[in-house]
Amino acid sequence: MLPSPEQAPLPGESARDSVAENLRRHRLRRALSMRELADRAGSSKGLLSQIERGVANPTLDVLSRLAEALDITVSDLIRPVLLRPEVVRAESAPARGEIAVRTLFTTMERRRTELSEAHLAPDVRSANTAHGRGAVELAYVVDGSVQVESQGWQVDLGKGDALQFSAEHAHTYVAGPSGAVLLTQVGFVDD
Question: In 3D, which of 86, 93, 116 has the Cα closest to residue 183?
């Protein structure tokens, strides 16, 4: 059984953590050792190790050299990373009056987005899909229940629950015994 995001420890969501995760991911994607990247960027292996562990605060000059060595942009290095899914439960909804508004998630990033409505029959499993580098998915359960599974985690959602997660990796929705109606929004990086 996979851990629930509510049970998983939050590894930290600082700018340093985002730089650390992005740098490590891009370096490994290019099959570069720390030494090779340090040489290409004119930096030391020790500093690179500290940046990837989230303990160093690299200067803009260092980030620029690392981005150039990896053939990416500085924004690719500093882009916030969702380190674990974020769940908003229906119980957090405001008391019902004439108008009740609940902000589920906010972002300051500019992204191309797609909003979709999905109707899942009872016990149906969706396709295992990923939406590309830097994609973020938001899901809101309008009716029924659903389990969302992705790389290393799963979470059960009921009517009124919301979820935000990195959609960079393949993920699946599994409808509960009465099916589910979902609203999903996928934000795509548009560099």
Answer: 116
Q: Which H or E element spans position 22?
A: helix 15-29
In the chain, the number of structural domains is 2
pTM of the model: 0.59
SS3 label, residue 79: coil
What's the distance, Cα to Cα, between the start and end of the chain in Å?
Answer: 37
- Non-local (6+) Cβ contacts of 169 within 8 A are 130, 150, 151
Give domain status of residue 4, yes or no.
no
- Domain end, chosen from 47, 78, 109, is at 78
Q: What is the pLDDT along the chain (191 residues), one digit of tens a residue?
A: 444 444 433 444 578 888 998 999 899 989 999 999 999 999 999 999 999 999 999 999 999 999 999 999 898 898 877 667 778 787 766 666 665 556 676 665 666 788 888 899 999 999 888 888 888 899 999 999 999 999 889 999 999 999 999 898 899 999 999 999 999 998 887 65
Long-range contacts of residues 31-36, Cβ cutoff 8 Å, at least 24 apart = 32/70
Residues 111 and 135 in one domain: yes
Residue linked to tokens 């099959």: 31
Query: Within 10 Å of residue 28's Cβ, how many Cβ atoms?
Result: 11
Question: DSSP secondary structure string, 26-51?
Answer: HHHHTT--HHHHHHHHT--HHHHHHH
